[in-house]
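User: Fold this; tokens only.

Assistant: Input:
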Amino acid sequence: MAFVAPLIGIFLVLRRYSLIADTLAHVSLAGIALGLLFGLSPILTALGITVVSSLGIERLRDSRRIYGESALALFLSGSLALATVLLSLAKGFNTNLFSYLFGSIVTVTTTDVYTIGALAVIVGTTLLFFYKELVYITFDEEAARVSGLPTKLINSILIILTAFTVSLSIPVVGVLLIAALIVVPVVASLQLKKSFSETIFYAELISISSVIAGIITSFYFNLSTGGTIVLIMLAVFLALFIVGRKNR
């Protein structure tokens, strides 16, 4: 997940669409609540609902009848309300729910590892295949549309990949922290003022090193793994922000 998340995050952050990760995380919470209520696989129900919602968000944004941030607010508040209602029907909070909210690396199964590995291959291959188109659309979507690129299709692919990344990372990072894993390493890397490809490289470096450091630290100090990882990434961002400001 440390490898996959920044690959998605770089395009979301530069398009000022960072909140999509947080919104889809809350949507996935509604999917998890649905799975717990009906005795289904929470990850599968979260994945299905998140993919459908991501396409709905993109359609609203593309229609231009609703501003992008307004569409996110609608889905975020609506999914959170739905999740609370479903959880109340499912007899409220329990241990399983908290593991989905905050992540629990010790409960990750071999199947989860293979699934995340497959996700990494799919996301990496897809982004590599559409790399030039995604970069073009990220910096000037109107020009890309005029030049004949299928912007709707490429935007839909990106948002579906985001939905997959959010849903399948829930067992490790948790609903409440996955947005940070997607956004924070990229924002930290942008403080270095490098080229696009170099920014991706440093975002990956920050993400992977923070995850490894977070796992080790949480193990020895008996802390929450997901929270420790995010705090380390925020510390890296703060350090780079301060250094960058002094250099300027």
